[in-house]
């Protein structure tokens, strides 16, 4: 299922339900049929997501040291998309909403 986040300050952000649930969980919200992130909640939400992204980047960098690319017997593989790439459109929306003192809604 797709979840659409809306704000008068930014273009709509559409994501899969599991990602929406995960990102909302990071900021302390639950994915319900309808919801809102008020402009008062946005600064803390941005901080929590940025912290989660930084932690994910650090863990991914540590994990990359364990890859054996180029060694005999190991096949190259793609690196999975990280939280930074997945969360960027939502964080961008939060920043724009903060700048314009606007709320973000879903399920409307």
Automatic annotation (TrEMBL):
Compositional bias of type Basic and acidic residues: which residue ranges? 55-79
Which residues lie within the region annotated Disordered?
53-79
Per its UniProt record, what InterPro entries does this chain match? DUF1840
Organism domain of life: Bacteria
Spell out the protein name for this chain. Answer: DUF1840 domain-containing protein
Q: Which organism is it from?
A: Caballeronia hypogeia
């Amino acid at each position: 299922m797709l979840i659409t986040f809306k704000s008068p300050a930014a273009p709509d952000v559409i994501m899969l339900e599991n990602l929406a649930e995960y990102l909302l969980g990071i900021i302390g919200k639950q994915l319900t049929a309808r919801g809102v992130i008020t402009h008062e909640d946005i600064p803390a939400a941005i901080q929590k997501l940025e912290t989660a992204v930084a932690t994910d980047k650090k863990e991914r960098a540590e994990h990359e040291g364990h890859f054996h690319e180029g060694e005999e017997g190991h096949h190259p593989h793609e690196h999975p998309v990280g939280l930074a790439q997945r969360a960027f459109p939502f964080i961008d929306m939060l920043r724009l909403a903060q700048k314009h003192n606007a709320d973000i809604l879903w399920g409307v």
